[in-house]
Specification:
Elements lengths: L1 H5 L5 E5 L4 H12 L3 E6 L2 H13 L3 E6 L5 H15 L4 E4 L14 H11 L1 H17 L2 E6 L12 H21 L4 E6 L7 H4 L11 H14 L8 H12 L10 E2 L10
Parallel strand pairs: 1-2, 1-4, 2-3, 4-5, 5-6, 6-7
Helix pairs in contact: 2-3, 2-10, 4-6, 5-7, 6-7
Protein name: Beta-ketoacyl-ACP reductase
Keywords: Oxidoreductase
Family: Belongs to the short-chain dehydrogenases/reductases (SDR) family.
């Protein structure tokens, strides 16, 4: 029964941010479960590399370029996926960017740039997918939030504000489209080893400073009862669960794969 509930055979999934990190891992896991995956990213070469990895592993995938800060680009992505496959069953809005500055230092341009990708990009993905799924009478939308919704982090005002807005968007849309058989949930990862966090220990030529990596991860390890940090597949498994029928009674929920760092009191 569980194998059947997790089976995504015959379903179509669109994943933004699929060129690397959590997006790439999510695309790979959904493909492994049988979905035909559209790997979308502004980095078209990275999206193509992800699609190639999936194909080499025996899965079905294609690549597409998308600028999630553009409503027209996101609409085109979804329309193209539906035109190619005849349906849309999963929309995973994973694409995101990071910016660090205090409130005092943050410029209008900084705020607009982060909100345009991390919130408006998710909004555009939700809107485009929901239009298709409501008419279809089924579907699962999975949005990427962050543990920043539960903690206070100096310097992350743009990022945490956008991710908190994603949570409210998720709950609102879940309420609106639930009667049409569409589920909307979010994943709020804890600190995970990705290109986004890797900026702290990766040089411009791509080489990694292992000592610096260990130093950056050390405080994160201390906060986790599991004494480990996240890997992209840890988050991808949460995305896969929400995408599948195993989560058919889940909507408007926020899953927190974070190693226990934000337990409620």
């Amino acid at each position: 029964m569980l194998r059947t509930a997790l089976d995504l055979s015959g379903r179509v999934a669109v994943i933004t941010g699929a060129a690397s990190g959590i997006g790439r891992s999510s695309a790979q896991v959904l493909a492994e479960l049988g979905a035909a995956v559209v790997c979308a990213d502004i980095n078209e070469g990275g999206a193509e590399a992800t699609a190639k990895l999936i194909a080499e592993a025996g899965g079905t995938a294609s690549a597409a370029r998308v600028d999630t800060s553009s409503a027209a680009s996101v609409d085109e992505l979804v329309a193209s996926a539906v035109a190619a496959h005849g349906r849309l069953d999963v929309m995973a809005n994973v694409a995101g960017i990071m910016h660090t500055s205090t409130v005092i230092e943050t410029t209008d341009e900084d705020l607009d740039r982060v909100l345009s990708v991390n919130f408006k990009g998710v909004f555009y993905g939700c809107r485009a997918a929901a239009r298709v799924m409501v008419e279809q009478g089924s579907g699962s939308i999975v949005n990427m939030a962050s543990s920043a919704i539960d903690t206070t982090n100096a310097g992350l005002v743009c990022y945490s504000t956008a991710k908190t807005a994603v949570v409210q968007l998720t709950k609102t849309l879940a309420t609106e489209v639930g009667p049409n058989g569409v589920r909307v949930n979010a994943v709020a990862p804890g600190w995970t080893v990705t290109g986004m966090t890797g900026r702290h220990w990766t040089a411009e030529d791509g080489t990694e400073d292992e000592a610096r990596k260990a130093a950056v991860a050390a405080p994160m390890l201390k906060m986790s009862p599991l004494k480990r940090v996240g890997e992209p597949e840890d988050i991808a498994y949460a995305v896969a669960y929400l995408a599948s029928d195993a989560a058919k009674f889940m909507t408007g929920q926020i899953l927190r794969p974070n190693g226990g760092v934000t337990m409620p009191w």
